[in-house]
Amino acid sequence: MQDKRQELLDLRAKSKEGGGIKRIEAQHAKGKLTARERIFFLLDEGSFQEMGALVQHRSNLFGLDQQKILGDGVITGYGTVNGRLIYVFAQDFTVLGGSLAEAHAEKIVKLMDLAMKNGAPLIGLNDSGGARIQEGVVSLGGYSDIFYRNVQASGVIPQLSAMMGPCAGGAVYSPALTDFIMMVEDTSYMFVTGPNVVKTVTHEEVTAEELGGANTHATKSGVTHLTYPNEIALIEGLKKLLSYVPQNCDEDAPSLPYSGGDETRMVLKDIVPDNANQPYDMKEVIEGTIDDNSFFEVHKDFAENMIVGFARLAGKSIGIVANQPAYLAGVLDIQASQKGARFVRFCDAFNIPLLVFEDVPGFLPGTDQEWNGIITNGAKLLYAFSEATVPRITVITRKAYGGAYCVMNSKQIGADMNFAWPSAEIAVMGAKGAAEIIFKRDIQGAKDPAVELAEKEAEYAEEFANPYKAASRGYIDEVILPEETRSLLIRAFKMLENKAQQLPKKKHGNMPL
Ligand code: HXC
Fold it and tell me: pLDDT digit string (tens) for 227-241?
């Protein structure tokens, strides 16, 4: 990192000897790198081949004839990250606010077509005020060309969007069509329309940070999947993310060398508390199971009752979807379902096997959830798992209640291996709630209703608050000791390595959007 910083300082010194100093200094004064510096940090040294550096816009309207800048506000080209080919564009906010019009769009379109034909990830380093207002309708046409290609490329090559400055209009809609969005705290913003337009139309006074800052999109809207304190950290994160994903949908993600050893993990033994209502941190289960320090969590601050992220198991890239009992008891709600569904679909599109850790008391009840569509949104997760054809394994650590049992990668919706720890409870609902409903009359008519309820609760728990009933039906393939989890997962994923499953022939399904 120190070397890189020195290289950056040298680069800056050199650029100050040349032209365009004011523009570069303006960018630096805002705490931002220039577009060229961002590419420099992202790619392997000397690997960048620029394309279209001499392209200019062709408009003379509204003073644009005085502002013809080589490259038209975007640097495009290809290079390698850790030896693997990627295509990259970096918008230059110092040129007409990084705005996009005909020529700028043509450069990105050319790059997208190459990325598709050659099967390598497309990285967008976005820093743009959206459609270039002076060029009018050709700006909109340019964005439509890009949107169309974003959609054609979806599921074919990974598309990653890094937001490096204030982005509006088309500059946020194109990223929204890509797989992952990353933002820099304090210097990047995303909105369809900025604070000034908001004030004019709705009379709301809101800062850019409140409206579309990194924190807003990480916690409230869920638009961004990852946030970083500065641009260098974001670029390092981008490289790390790339290491978990394949080049395209026909390839597997790269593996790291791995030599097996004693895979027993005693740390997993005591994580789940004896009291079924006591929370625990599912991240300890994840960390205890996977290769050391390999968890790359995404969407961390959004819908924290659901955990999603990439990890490595015996060197291989996997996607993890897990309930988080430490947050809202791990309940499934609208946002958690959306978060999980989107991640499952990414992994499935790019051949990344899925591992599910389940401890879920059910769907969240209430008017807020019902009126905002928990039915449709919960169905998204069900749909996403049901159509996923990658190897899929579930480990039930504690509760698997009600519809949430079905949704969280149950055997019946296509999971390949389903394990349960002895602490698992697989039932329609918790024992107390169940007893209150089915033994209502007995309880009401009893001499001591409280004692009767406790007895009936114990009766129900005896029957269902364990994994054995489900195992006797084959819903669970094996009840395993927590400490054996890692070794059994390694073995099971190895067994599933050549899984090949086709969905029924169709144009496309109709996911409940
Ligand atoms: C032309 C633009 C521009 C644009 C910014 N600039 N956006 N020029 N077209 N869309 C220019 C400014 O005029 C200014 O030029 C320079 O870029 C820097 O902009 P500032 O406003 O000074 O920067 P800042 O205060 O940081 O604000 C950034 C911003 C704001 C929030 C992005 O510029 C903004 O709101 N821009 C307009 C956003 C917008 O409405 N875009 C069109 C969206 S429609 P000078 O010469 O003064 O330095 C769209 C259609 C797509 O994109 C379809 C979607 C489905």
Answer: 999 999 999 999 999
